[in-house]
């Protein structure tokens, strides 16, 4: 279909820039994008008859990475070597 | 459900969207998929491995992971501190727990779900059965309606019999009344004739007795005695 209506996974790398320019960055647009992303994640991994460990473990891993990123400036002080 | 068009205010019914033009309906809800998306090692979706397979083969993502890890460690973008040890211990315990008890917990949860679904299904089946029974009874009632004709014929027969019985009753009554009156007339005539007869006989007797004078009485008695003597003589002779 046309570029502005394709989901992110179907956009090729070369078209990424133009695709981002077609997205609306208003509050409603961002909120809609977040809602859609969460909805598709839930539909794929959580709202199934046999969920397994994939759904929640990916959420926890993402949380771990995010919190490492937020605390990086503090963790930088506990480095072992001065020069890398 | 979010894919459906938003509801229209039907209260005051000035809509800009036509109602009920599509085949969409909220029931039956499509069933949940059986299994979720494939994930390898519990963390990375299978689509990533398939994405890298054409260019790098099977070991591609693992080499990428190893290279990334070594880069993070050597540049100390990931710093090893006390939290690393804690994370390692916690992850070991979690992985061991999941491997050992995962299947049992999954079976238990599946059983709970199964019971809920079975209860709902039972309700639905019972509803369907009751509606089926209602349909059959309705059909039977419709069949019964065809018997109207017989019912009305029977009623008509009843009424005709009542009328006939009434008519005959009255006929009998008329006959009896007329007979009573005629009998009365006959009895009157008989009585009159009887009375006239008796009266006439009495009058004739009275006149006859009056007309018998004493002289005639003596003569008749003497004649009777002479007759008797003659008779006795003939009787003696016979003996």
UniProtKB/TrEMBL annotation, chain A:
GO terms for cellular component: mitochondrial membrane; proton-transporting ATP synthase complex. Keywords: ATP synthesis, CF(0), Hydrogen ion transport, Ion transport, Membrane, Mitochondrion, Transmembrane, Transmembrane helix, Transport. Its main location: mitochondrion. InterPro entries: F1F0-ATPsyn_F_prd. It holds the Pfam family WRW. It is found in: Mitochondrion membrane. GO terms for biological process: proton motive force-driven mitochondrial ATP synthesis. The chain crosses the membrane at residues 54-72. One of its GO terms (molecular function) is proton-transporting ATP synthase activity, rotational mechanism. Belongs to the ATPase F chain family. This is ATPK synthase.
From TrEMBL, chain B:
GO terms for molecular function: proton-transporting ATP synthase activity, rotational mechanism. Pfam families: Mt_ATP-synt_B. It is found in: Mitochondrion; Mitochondrion inner membrane. GO terms for cellular component: mitochondrial inner membrane; proton-transporting ATP synthase complex. InterPro entries: ATP_synth_Bsub_B/MI25, ATP_synth_F0_suB. Its main location: mitochondrion. The keyword Ion transport applies. The keyword Ion transport applies. Keywords: CF(0), Hydrogen ion transport, Ion transport, Membrane, Mitochondrion, Mitochondrion inner membrane, Transport. PANTHER family: ATP SYNTHASE F(0) COMPLEX SUBUNIT B1, MITOCHONDRIAL, MITOCHONDRIAL ATP SYNTHASE B CHAIN. Belongs to the eukaryotic ATPase B chain family. Subunit b, of the mitochondrial membrane ATP synthase complex (F(1)F(0) ATP synthase or Complex V) that produces ATP from ADP in the presence of a proton gradient across the membrane which is generated by electron transport complexes of the respiratory chain. ATP synthase complex consist of a soluble F(1) head domain - the catalytic core - and a membrane F(1) domain - the membrane proton channel. These two domains are linked by a central stalk rotating inside the F(1) region and a stationary peripheral stalk. F-type ATPases have 2 components, CF(1) - the catalytic core - and CF(0) - the membrane proton channel. CF(1) and CF(0) have multiple subunits. This is ATP synthase subunit b.
């Amino acid at each position: 279909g046309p570029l502005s209506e394709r989901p992110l996974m179907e956009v090729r790398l070369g078209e990424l820039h133009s695709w981002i320019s077609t997205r609306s960055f208003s509050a409603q647009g961002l909120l809609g994008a977040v809602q859609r992303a969460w909805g598709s994640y839930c539909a794929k991994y959580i709202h199934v008859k046999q969920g397994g460990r994939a759904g929640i473990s990916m959420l926890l891993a993402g949380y771990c990475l995010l919190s490492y990123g937020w605390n990086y400036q503090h963790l930088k002080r506990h480095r072992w070597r001065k020069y890398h | 459900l979010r894919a459906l068009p938003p509801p229209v205010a039907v209260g005051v019914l000035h809509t800009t969207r036509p109602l009920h033009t599509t085949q969409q309906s909220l029931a039956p809800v499509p069933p949940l998929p059986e299994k979720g998306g494939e994930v390898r090692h519990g963390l990375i979706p299978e689509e990533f491995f398939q994405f890298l397979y054409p260019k790098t083969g099977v070991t591609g993502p693992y080499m990428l992971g190893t290279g990334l890890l070594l880069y993070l460690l050597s540049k100390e973008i990931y710093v090893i501190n006390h939290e690393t040890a804690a994370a390692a211990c916690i992850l070991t315990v979690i992985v061991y727990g999941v491997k050992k008890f995962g299947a049992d917990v999954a079976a238990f949860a599946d059983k709970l779900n199964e019971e809920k679904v079975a209860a709902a299904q039972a309700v639905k089946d019972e509803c369907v059965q009751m509606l089926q029974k209602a349909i059959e009874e309705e059909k039977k009632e419709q069949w019964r309606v065809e018997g109207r004709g017989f019912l009305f014929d029977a009623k008509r027969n009843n009424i005709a019999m009542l009328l006939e019985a009434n008519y005959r009753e009255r006929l009998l009554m008329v006959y009896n009344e007329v007979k009573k009156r005629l009998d009365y007339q006959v009895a009157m005539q008989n009585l009159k004739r009887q009375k006239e007869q008796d009266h006439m006989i009495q009058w004739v007797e009275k006149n006859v007795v009056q007309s018998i004078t004493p002289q005639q009485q003596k003569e008749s008695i003497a004649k009777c005695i002479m007759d008797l003597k003659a008779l006795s003589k003939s009787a003696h002779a016979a003996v």
